[in-house]
Amino acid sequence: MTLTDPNTASLNGLWDFAFLGAIAPDNFDAASITDWSKQPVPAAFDALPDHAGKRGLACYRRTVDIPSGRTAKLSFGAISIWSQVYIDGVLMHENACGYAPIEINIPAADSSRRELLVLVDNRFDFERVPMHEEYFDFYQYGGILRDVGVRIYPADGQAVDFIHVTPLDDYAQGEVHIRVGLVGDIPSPAELSVSFDGAEATPVQVEIDGQEASFTTRVPQPRLWSPQSPELHTLRIDLAGHELAAGCQARFGLRKIEARDGKLWLNGQQLTLKGYNRHEWHPNSGPTTPTLQMVADLQYLRDLGCNFVRGSHYPQDQRFLDLCDEMGFLVWEENLGWGQRERTLTSPTFHQQHDKSLRAMMHASHNHPCVIIWGFLNEAGSNEAYSRPIFEQTVATIRQFDSSRLVSFASMFALKDLNFDLVDLIAINIYPGWYGCEYCEEPLSLIAPHMEKCFAHVSSPKLKDKPIIVSEIGAEALYGWREAHNDFYTEEYQAQYLKTACEEALGHERCSGIALWHFSDARTYGGGLSMKRPRTFNNKGTLDEYRRPKAAYRSVREVFRRYPDTPAS
Ligand code: ADA
Q1: Model's pTM, two decimal places?
Q2: DSSP 3-state assignment of 469?
Q3: Interatomic CA distance for residues 175 and 226, integer angstroms
Q4: Candidates 428, 517, 521, 536: which one to mutate for ligand 1, based on the most atoms within 8 Å of Cβ?
Q5: Is residue 490 within 8 Å of 531, Cβ to Cβ?
Q6: How far is the CA of 204 from the centre of ligand 1 (A)?
Q7: Ligand 1 midpoint to CA 137 (Å)
């Protein structure tokens, strides 16, 4: 559900809630719950005081009014970690990726008041939920994390379900491909009524193939989208002769992203990415950030001179992408992944769930002009042969679904990766001068030579035409910790570190950009796993968790503002 979807009614609000704790999902019996309380939706139940840090089974419940005899579609932005959705006691959907958007078709019933029950489990369980593992370096919450909505279809069940708009080669003159998803038994050919930007509709005849139709057209009075000028268009498609509730609306932008000659290009102009990795997280609200906070974050990023956000490490909240469309940020959106190795990458259940959430992410985000890169499997074992099948399969799926964007993954094996040949953009996560420099007297001096080595490696004949970015680099600083040694964890060390990293990357001919690790401090695992994570936070934020700028803010801002978004090519 996005800000621009007029047909979907919100189901956000206070829902009935019960935390069932240690019960196994198979032993769940809704009738046995007597102790219901209330829980806000969307929210992580374990980000709130009553259940902070708890893991177990939980149940959400509410009613939904759908006129009798009408079909409907439920949409959940994300339910974490594992979930099942029941309507009137009937299991409708099971999901095992806590950040993937979910859509569920609801069949018609005689009664108009329907019971919606969502069973959630935030425990780790490799057999059932291999997408989520305990060692990921960010806290994995439980609950209905993102917006919930319902779309009620017209009485005949016929409607436009979704629209995907893809700019084509002549995008500057408004040329677009339109894919229309349909529900109900609509006879082919059908007449669609197509209207851009609220102008008078024009009829278009389409053949229906399965539940879809597609055609190519031109946007009247086209305006290009770019970070400097984030111009958006709208498209409304109705079924001719049907009521308005059968129509659908989408918002999109005309722009083209390319990787060629070793560089990135946006709308034909060379592009440098300057930005941050960002987790969707705030101490007051966990992973369900209020829109106000998202706007504040983007304002800080703009002030820092950024044009780019890597949405680490999972599908993004549609509200955030809507804001990036409007405010002119370029986004790398990626499927959930963090450091998986052989056991996971060769698990058939993992393959299947990874593929399902990848497709759900691309489906939900297709129309956002801000999204220029599809990413996957952050820091997986891409230096080992066992990684090849899932990397090949994922790239093939992305290209089949959407060839208008770049494909990449962030590698922690800059010099030994086996899969760079598959992608459009090489992206490396490197931490010289932070990890692995225990006995180095001048750790800052490690940054430039390591980057140089990585850039030289990808300048080999096989890789030289692919652009490269530093997709992560950073050092921890504890907010307020400043002292004369300027050692690890001080704000001074981090400020020097990030300044050096930005200057080395942006000043290098071979490098097309940098995404610093990371925007703001965020909670990660606790207990014994947190030995290298003071406060159980990943403290590499340039801002702390309350968005108080550390000393690095000024040094990064100074460098980012010195380098233009579009260098003269
Ligand atoms: C990795 C990883 C990040 C974070 C970072 C760090 O590169 O992708 O999520 O864990 O390291 O802080 O070490």
Answers
A1: 0.98
A2: strand
A3: 17
A4: 517
A5: no
A6: 49
A7: 7
Q: What is the pLDDT of residues 10-60, one digit of tens each?
A: 999 999 999 999 999 999 999 999 999 999 999 999 999 999 999 999 999
CA distance 369 to 259: 16
Residue 137: strand, helix, or coil: coil
- Rounded CA separation 78/95 (Å): 10
Q: Tell me, what amino acid is at 222?
A: P
Burial of 524 (0-12, 13-18, 19+ CB in 10 A): buried
Cα 565 to ligand 1 centroid, rounded to whole Å: 26
- 185: buried, middle or exposed (CB in 10 Å: 19+, 13-18, 0-12)? exposed
What's residue 3's pLDDT? 46
Ligand 1 centroid to 136 CA: how many Å?
A: 9
User: Do the beta carbons of residue 270 and residue 263 sit within 8 Å?
Assistant: yes
pLDDT (tens digit per residue) in 408-462: 999 999 999 999 999 999 999 999 999 999 999 999 999 999 999 999 999 999 9
Our CA angle for 115, 105, 335, nearest 5°, is 110
Pocket test for ligand 1, best of 335, 429, 470, 536 (most atoms within 8 A of CB): 429
User: How far, in Å, from the CA of 554 to the mean position of ligand 1?
Assistant: 23
What pLDDT is stored for residue 1 in this prediction?
47
**pLDDT tens figures, 152-197:** 999 999 999 999 999 999 999 999 999 999 999 999 999 999 999 9
* β 406-408/371-375 pair status: parallel
CA atoms within 13 A on the CB side of 98: 29
Name every residue whose Cβ is closer than 8 Å to that of residue 565 and which is 6 or more positions away in sequence: 227, 228, 271, 272, 274, 307
Instruction: Answer for the pair 206, 214: CB distance below 8 angstroms, yes or no.
Output: yes
State how far the alpha carbon of 72 is from the alpha carbons of 7, 109, 454, in Å: 11, 11, 52
Protein residues whose CB sits closer than 6 Å to any atom of ligand 1: 137, 312-313, 378-379, 429, 472, 517, 538, 540
